[in-house]
Specification:
Length: 161
Amino acid sequence: MMAQNGKGISRRTLIGYGWIGAAAIVVGELIGGTLALLWPKVRKEKAKKLLVAGKIDEFKVGQVVLFRKEKVFINRTEEGLLALSAICPHLRCVVRWTEPKNAFECPCHGGVFNDLGEVVSGPPPRPLDIYEVKVAGNKVVVDTSKAIQRKEFRRSQLILV
Ligand code: FES
């Protein structure tokens, strides 16, 4: 690529620049990779959203309590506590607790769940999601930041109280 006046860049010089550029990219990748290994990764955890639901003795056995703002039900069974999402896993309508039927009912397409959130009838593809629940001191605390999907109810999902 010689200019007509003889002062342009020669092909050899141009190839040399190409090699320098390629070497610079490789060195940059090596330095970047090394730094990435040396610096600890900062894991961005989703901040926990804690619902302090009340004192444990305020939840009576057989009672299902709705926390409307958080769309969470707390069911105290004979064996323990279960925190259930009020969001229907079909198309995300809010279910309601119907005490005489001992069931959660979805107003949108007729999905029905038992008191443990398992599907009894209708289109929902899985049980109601649950949330992690703990008893801290004598307070019931629900982590509403992450709904946990499940295929069925298991006793291990209960917090024994
Ligand atoms: S959204 Fe609940 S059954 Fe369809």
